[in-house]
Q: What sequence folds into this?
């Protein structure tokens, strides 16, 4: 699908904001729970340059888009010292959940704004209204995708930290040993398996259905806000 000039112009800001808030949320919650590492490293900032990972933010997504593969990437992880947290096992789960949680909160707020935009701005408002609606729509999509993608229980994603905290200590230690191989496993699942077994449609069957379901809930919220009577 070819992107229009308006779509190309609307993509960068929503995408950057979704990624930056995700990362800052990890560090902010870690600081609240006793670990000042991210704050000391200057990572509790909305400056996107502080969160760019040259490989994960630029090279990998660019290469995947170039070869028409499923596009994913990552920002430079916010540093967290688990041993400085007040209750390491529990608090690490909360720190991990903060990123996806912030994305879902932002998606909900954007859905409300989207509904208010539809309610109060005329349809013939021109390019400004269209650009604002498109930007909010993209912001919802990016936030939902980031939340669900990062909740996958595959190291090093946030979902793996939540699973590790829920497992008994002995099982958690075994599970943690897979962390160095997690990214390779993700590449294998998203790129290797579809290449060898194209009919399996892993992305369409596993990733797309929950994404569409969550998106439907947020746009239902937007429609409800748009339909409110004064």
A:
């Amino acid at each position: 699908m070819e992107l229009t000039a308006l779509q190309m112009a609307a993509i960068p800001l929503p995408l950057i904001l979704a990624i930056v808030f995700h990362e800052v949320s990890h560090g902010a919650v870690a600081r609240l729970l006793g670990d000042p590492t991210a704050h000391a490293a200057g990572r509790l900032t909305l400056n996107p340059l502080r969160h760019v990972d040259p490989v994960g933010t630029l090279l990998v997504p660019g290469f995947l888009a170039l070869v028409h593969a499923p596009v994913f990437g990552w920002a430079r992880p916010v540093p967290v010292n688990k041993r400085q947290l007040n209750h390491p096992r529990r608090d690490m789960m909360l720190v991990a959940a903060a990123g996806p949680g912030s994305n879902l909160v932002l998606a909900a707020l954007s859905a409300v704004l989207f509904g208010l935009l539809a309610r109060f701005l005329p349809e013939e408002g021109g390019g400004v209204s269209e650009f604002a609606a498109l930007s909010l729509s993209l912001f919802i999509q990016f936030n939902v995708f980031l939340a669900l993608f990062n909740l996958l229980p595959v190291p090093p994603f946030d979902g793996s930290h939540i699973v590790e905290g829920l497992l008994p200590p002995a099982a958690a230690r075994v599970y943690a040993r897979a962390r160095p191989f997690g990214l390779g496993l993700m590449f294998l699942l998203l790129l290797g398996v579809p290449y060898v077994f194209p009919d399996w449609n892993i992305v369409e069957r596993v990733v797309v259905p929950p994404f569409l379901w969550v998106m439907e809930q947020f746009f239902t919220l937007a429609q409800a806000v748009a339909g409110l009577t004064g």
In short: The two ends are 40 Å apart (CA to CA). The CA atoms of residues 155 and 181 lie 7 Å apart. The mean pLDDT is 85.
